[in-house]
Structure formats: structure tokens, C-alpha cells
## 1
Amino acid sequence: MKKILFLFVCLISICLIYNLKLDDKITIFKISDENISNKEYTNTLNCNKKIDKYIIYHNKYNYRVVDYLRDIVDNIDIKYNNKTYSINNLLVKSNLIVLNIGNVDIKNIKNIEIDPYDYIDNVIKNYEDLLKHIRKESKENVIILYEIDRNDKYTDYYYNKLKSISYKHNCLFYDKSKLDKYIKNL
């Protein structure tokens, strides 16, 4: 009887220690081809007190999806609060990955010389390769953001294809304006 009581006490102790040490802080890693304002950044941090880090990878050059794919494959380093992280390390350690990329590609549709649908199919192929690399590193939630403004048949075609691959790779497909609501409920 003493052995059973001792095992029971040990089991309860282990469970309590585990729950006390459990880190409930959230790390969000956002890859975006749009510059993020300080106001948006602060609003996101303030909407959920569990957020520990909100790391944004934004390249000021006109980065396309293929450029972000190359950065992930090359595992480049990103600075955040004077610390350097590899992109793959951030993908592994983040609780939520947010992708807001592809806008530069879509804005360039009117300036290309090939068939716009072929161009979009190529962008979607690169996006799918990027999602495969992300899924290799992370099993956490991935949100693909889109803008509600679909002003022509090409952007509509692009968003429909993007929605299709997002579901294929078990990603959430969210309107950009609803991201804060999602983060608030984490």
C-alpha cells in the first residue's frame, strides 16, 4: 500500500511540476512583404498578453515569393532585439507563423511580358515550395493573409489558387484585417 501511495504522490508531483514549468508564452514569426507600422506592431502585442516575441521578417526591397523561398532554403539570419536567429530556428520555435507575401508579385502582373495566368501559376508553385519548406520545420499554425480587395480577374485567380494550396498544406487562410482577432483568442 505504501508503494502505491508513493507512486501516486510521485505522479501528482511530476504533473504539478510540468504544469508549473509549462511555458504559455507565444512566439509569432511573421514574414511580410509589406512594411509594418509601429502602431500595428504595438496593437498586436497589446491584444494578447501571452505574446512573448513578435518577430517580423520584412525585406525593404521588392521581394517576391521566390526570394523569400530562397531565404528560407539558405537559412539566413534575422536580428531581433540584438539577437540573431536563423530563419529555420524561428520556424521551429514559433507557435504561430504568419505569411503576408506575394503582394509584390501580384502588383507586377501588369508589367510582365508573359501570359498573366502562367505568371500566377509560377508564383503559386513557388509559394507551394515555400510552404513545403515551412512544414518541414514547423507543425504549428501557419496563417496566410490575403487582402479583401480583389480588383480584377488576375488577383481573383491568384487568391483562389492560394486558398487551394493553403488548405492542401493545412494552413489557415485569413483576411488580413482579422489577424488581430485571431491573435487575441490564442
Note: The chain has a mean pLDDT of 82.
## 2
Amino acid sequence: MKRLSVKQVNNLITGTSLSIELPSSSENLRAFLTIYSYMRSSDGGIAGSRVSKVLNSNKEGLRFSFRKYEIDKSYIENDWDIAPEDLANSILKTDIESIEDLEKELSEFLDDFSELDVEWRCDNPL
């Protein structure tokens, strides 16, 4: 399925991140993709407030972002802090303006969006 479900979209537009574990490029690494939303202010900067949890609130300025990365398994197994320089094969895409644009971007990495779930259900260490 190359479209996000209504439930996935509702999670994103209310500020709940989605995540999935992907196949990694090495057996020593684990790979993840995480999608989140944020608010842009009217002057183009990042707004000082979080995305509203109210589904039917004003979503003007809502933007989406995702990060695909790999991390050495030892960081997860030992519960070590992770800095950006510890990430391998990291891709960060920000300022995605619509769900449709997000789906186009994600289709490069995922064949089936149905496995994306709320971030806390995934082992995502970030």
C-alpha cells in the first residue's frame, strides 16, 4: 500500500510520530525510518509550539519530516546515548508540505506503508 491510512495521517497531524524498522545494510547495524510533524510559523521559522493534539484545529503551517538512518546494534543493546555523528547512512528530509508529498518521498524507501506504526511501538532509539 503506497498511501498512508487515515489513522496514520491522523496520528501525524496531531503530532504523533510514526516509525518502522527497515532491513539494514549490515548485520552489525539496525535501520529505522521515523516520520514526524512540526509547525512552521508565518515568517517561515519553526513555531514555538508543538502540533496541536486536536484533530480539527487549524493546521496552517503544518510540515512533515522524516529521517532514515542506521545505527550500530551496540548502541541499542547498551542503551548508549546517540549523537548525529553516530548515525550511519542517515537521510533527513524536512519541510515536506503535504501528506501527498510525504507519500512520494516515502515511496523511495517503503513498498508498503501499512507497517508504519506509532513510534513508541518501534525500537527506534532516537
Note: DSSP finds three helices and five strands in the chain.
## 3
Amino acid sequence: MDAKSAVHILGSLSLYVILKAAIPMLPIKPSAAVIYISMFLLTATAFMLARMIATMRRCWRTDIIAMAMCLLVWMAGFWLGEISAGKRYGELATITQEVGLLCFASFSGKTVSLVIREGNLLLPAAMAMMLVDVWFVNLSGATPQVANRAGKLFKAMTVKLPPAGAKKIPAPALLMGFGDIFFAALIIAALHRFGFEVRVSFWLAVLAASLGLTLVSLLDIPLAGLPFIAGGLLLPNIHRLKLTREEWIATGIGIGMLAVILIAAWLALNR
């Protein structure tokens, strides 16, 4: 990691922290437009961090050290939250935990993206991950169950995105999970490595993810985030993601097998 990249990452983190602190304090009554703009600003800064890390020059030693440091920050934030009693220390713990989570998820996604050896594999990989996300969030209800039964673990794996006016007029904070940042970094890193369109894809993903979060707030139902993120990232490059007939058949078989495994696991756990 060169000095320029480090400055950009620190700047993006600082902007995220400032926006997260300032947006809820705005004396604005939450509405659909206000919620969407709030989510756009917070999602853009979080994804900007993922994009900067994902498109950095790859260096195994640097990336592994960075992942270890981010994991330590993430764990330190969680531990501080467990022992802190005052509100101020609790907020510091939350910010520390979220900064660690955002960076660790981004570096992890960048590293795992190396398993995608060809650009055409982006589409099957994204389809598989979207299926898993939709299954856990919407179909099986596993994610809401984890939120209810293991609240501390769920909190440690998510980032809160409060809308404008949340501190003046109480409104529930919307959530972005570890998997959302991981997936965004993974796909952006692969798009960058294969020379695909990144800039337009990035902003389209931010717009789509912000829409998904706004719908969660307005409809008061959980929605999987990966379909929104994947649609934004892959749509501008869809003309380059061409699969042969055999590849489509293999993808269909793989997705079908994954669906069977998920259903079987759900049935076994709910006996």
C-alpha cells in the first residue's frame, strides 16, 4: 500500500465517520426522499472505501497485514462495546467496530476475488451469492432469527446507517451487513482486474443499494442487499458477460444444487 492509497483510505473513513455523526443530527423530518439521500451518502462513502481497497495494487504481504490489523480493530471495537458503560464510550466502540468491519470486509473481498479466474465467471458467482443472500434474508428467515437470538453477534456483523433527523425524531437505523461490503469489494476487484467498467458500475450500485435500504425502511420488511448491489455492478458490463450454452447449463446445475443444499439444511435445522 503506497502513501497515496493510505491517504485516500483514511480520507474515506474519516468522511464516513463525519457523515454518520452529522446526518442523524440534521433537524429534518424523515421522508422517503430524505431517507434515500441519507442512505446514498452513507452507502457511497462505505462503498468508496471498498472500491479504493479493491482496486489497489495487489501485494499479498501488505494485504494480509492489513486484514490482520483490521480484524484487530473490529474485535477491539466489539470488546470495548462489551465493557463500556457510558453512551459516549458506546458510540466510540460502535465506530471502531464498524471501521474495522468495513476495512476487513473490503480486504477479504479483494483477496477472495482472485478465485475468479475469468471475467465470464463473475455472473455465475454473483448469481450463487445472491441466491444465498435471498435465502437467508427473505426465504428461510435465518438472518432475522440470528438477529433475535444472537443480537450481539448480529450487531458485530453489521453497520448501522441512520437516516437524517434520527436523533431529533426517533427512526430505526438501517443495516448493511459484512456480506454486502465483502461482495461489493469482491466484484469491484474482479471488474478492475479484467478491465471491465468500474466507475459507472460503482455509482449504479450505490444508487441501487440506497433504493433497497429505502424500501426496507418504507415497507418495514427485510430485503436481501446483494441483488441490488449485483445489479448495479454487473448491468453496465452485461454485454461482456457472455456465457456459452454449456456454461449456462453448468451454471443452472450449480445453482440448482446450491438451492437443494440450502433447502436440505433448512429442513434439517427446523425438525
Note: Strands lie at 158-161, 174-177.
## 4
Amino acid sequence: MAAPPLLLPEGALLVRVPAGDPGWVHQLPAVPGVPEAAEVTVTLGRPELLPVDTGPLRERGYRIIGAASASLPIGDVVDLLVPGALRTTAPTWWLELLGRAERVFDPGLGPVQRMLHAELSLHMRALSEDH
């Protein structure tokens, strides 16, 4: 039986960014308006990508909310759930983030939700806990 569709933030996109270098945390552009702006949620492609100190990442407006299972790693990547409203209000930041992206997924599409359901569920759980 297929999992029910997730109700994602309007216009949200999942942005996959390479994270093979330990300095990946510092390569992400700072989210405009931090600390007042909503944080961008991040999942790790494998647990070993967790930085020793997450402070710099939080200061830049990102929050790690989980990692791919050690038995089913995605690889040396991080996935960021970017709300449509943030893309609209911060186009320069969005273009800079896209310049670092390896892939961009539209989680509103059924096949993407089926393929990345577990990961998208982590993002949705974190966002629902914020409200």
C-alpha cells in the first residue's frame, strides 16, 4: 500500500547539495533574515556528515533534522527543503544556492514523494513541531 501524500509547504523544493568536503557547512549561503527568518531544514545523505559543531550551520539559518539510514545511505550530499515563499522573497540567495546544487526535486510530484518519502517525512515532522 502506498503511503499517503505529504502536505508540504506551498512551492517547496528539495535541493540536493554535495557535501563530500568537511567544510560543506560553510559553503551554504546564509539564509536572509536569520535569526528572524524560518530555518531551512536539512537532512544528511549519511550520518557521518554530521558536523562536530552545528553552531555555524544554525547561525546561517539551517537546521539538521535527520540523516539517511546507515544501511541505506544516499551519499555525500545534504538535502535542503526550501519553501516557495523563501525562494520568492530571497531570489539572490536562491540563485546562489542553486549554483551549489547537484539536483533539485519537486516534492509535490507523486514519483518524487514515493522515492524520497522517508526523507520528506523527516522534514515535515520537524516543520510540524515548529508550529
Note: Residues 13-130 form one domain.
